[in-house]
Amino acid sequence: QVQLIESGGGLVQDGGSLRLSCTASGRTFSNYAMGWFRQAPGKEREFVTTISRGGGTTYYADSVKGRFTISRDNAKNTVYLQMNMLKPEDTAVYYCAANSVATRISSTYDYWGQGTQVTVSS
User: Fold this and answer.
1) How far apart are CA 32 and CA 6, in angstroms?
2) Are 113 and 21 in contact (CB under 8 A)?
3) pLDDT range class, residue 49, cuts 50, 70, 90
4) Separation of alpha carbons 9 and 62, rounded Å
5) Distance CA 14, CA 79 (A)
6) Which residue in 78, 91, 80 sits closest to 16, CA to CA?
7) pLDDT for position 35
8) Which residues does residue 4 pair with via DSSP β-bridges, in sequence order?
9) Mean pLDDT confidence for 50-72
């Protein structure tokens, strides 16, 4: 089992920045690719970004490319999501997830955090 705990969510104005963190425990963090997903009210959960086990490969949704950056620190068992130039449409609950490979497909992820709310006001 892998336990994931997200933090760093909050309320920010349009154009602002936030950094989310997700800390893992339970198994060797570096064995897992990590992903960030989000779910807005009334919408399905959607892919945001993912990073490979060693951090050398990343993928982003088109909607966040150039504004969001995923990174990881395997020594700290933590993955980060730096979100810049936030927009009201980025408002959602953000979830981190662990998988064996870095993919965009949420159903392939084995472990999920509880989520953290990000609200961007206009």
Assistant:
1) 16
2) no
3) very high
4) 22
5) 24
6) 91
7) 98
8) 24
9) 97
Contacts of 3 (CB under 8 A, 6+ apart): 24, 25, 26, 111
Which is nearest to 52 in space by CA: 112, 106, 103, 1? Answer: 103
Torsion of CA 72, 74, 77, 80, to 10 degrees: -10
CA distance 65 to 67: 6
Q: Which amino acid is at 105?
A: I
* Cα 85 from Cα 17, distance rounded (Å): 6
Question: CA torsion angle for 109, 82, 48, 16 (degrees, to 10)?
Answer: 140
Assess contact for 81 and 70: CB atoms under 8 A.
yes
Q: How far apart are CA 103 and CA 122, in angstroms?
A: 32
CA distance 60 to 63: 8
**Token reading at 98:** 């662990």
